[in-house]
C-alpha cells in the first residue's frame, strides 16, 4: 500500500506569525536611532471636560514639576481662575518652588511666557495659551532654548 502525502497548508496565528519573523532588523533600527534623554523645548497638553476633572488630571503633572531637582522655579503664566493658592496646597504642590505670574498693562500672556522662558530662572514655564499659532509656538521654542528651559502649554477645552 502506498501512502500519498499531500502537503497541508497550515495557518499560523497572528502571534506565531509575528514571532516567526526575525528580530534583527528591529533591534538594528533601535540601536541606530537611540532614544534621546534630552527633553523637548516645547510640549503641549490638551485637556477636555469639566474644569474639576481637568484640574485633577493636571495636579500630578504640576506636583511632579514642583518637586524637580532643578533649583529653578516652576512658573505658571496666567493660570485659569480655578487654579488658586488653595488648590495648589490641596493638590500637594511645593508652593515654595512655584511662581504665579499675570501679564500687566499691554503685555500679553504670550509675551510674558517668552520673557520668563528667555530669562532662564525657571526650569519649566507653564502657559494656558489658546489658540496657539505656529509662529507663537516657534517663539516659545526659541525662548525656551535661550533660557535652557521647558515650555508646557495647557489647552483646556
Automatic annotation (TrEMBL):
GO terms (BP aspect): negative regulation of cell division; SOS response
SUPFAM superfamilies (alphabetical): P-loop containing nucleoside triphosphate hydrolases
Annotated keywords: Transferase
GO MF entries: transferase activity
Pfam families referenced in this protein's UniProt entry, alphabetically: SulA
InterPro entries linked: Cell_div_suppressor_SulA, P-loop_NTPase
Stretch forming the signal peptide: none
Gene3D superfamilies, per database record: P-loop containing nucleotide triphosphate hydrolases
Listed name of the protein: CDP-glycerol--UDP-pyrophosphoryl-N-acetylglucosaminyl-N-acetylmannosamine glycerophosphotransferase
Amino acid at each position: 500500500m502506498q501512502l500519498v502525502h499531500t502537503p497541508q497548508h497550515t495557518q499560523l496565528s497572528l502571534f506565531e506569525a509575528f514571532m516567526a519573523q526575525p528580530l534583527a532588523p528591529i533591534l538594528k533600527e533601535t540601536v541606530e536611532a537611540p532614544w534621546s534623554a534630552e527633553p523637548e523645548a516645547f510640549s503641549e497638553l490638551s485637556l477636555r471636560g469639566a474644569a474639576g476633572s481637568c484640574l485633577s488630571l493636571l495636579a500630578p503633572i504640576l506636583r511632579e514639576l514642583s518637586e524637580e531637582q532643578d533649583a529653578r522655579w516652576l512658573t505658571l503664566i496666567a493660570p485659569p481662575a480655578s487654579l488658586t493658592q488653595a488648590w495648589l496646597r490641596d493638590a500637594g504642590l511645593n508652593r515654595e518652588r512655584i511662581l504665579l505670574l499675570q501679564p500687566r498693562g499691554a503685555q500679553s500672556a504670550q509675551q510674558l511666557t517668552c520673557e520668563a522662558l528667555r530669562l532662564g530662572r525657571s526650569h519649566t514655564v507653564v502657559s494656558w495659551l489658546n489658540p496657539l499659532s505656529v509662529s507663537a509656538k516657534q517663539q516659545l521654542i526659541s525662548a525656551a532654548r535661550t533660557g535652557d528651559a521647558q515650555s508646557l502649554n495647557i489647552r483646556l477645552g
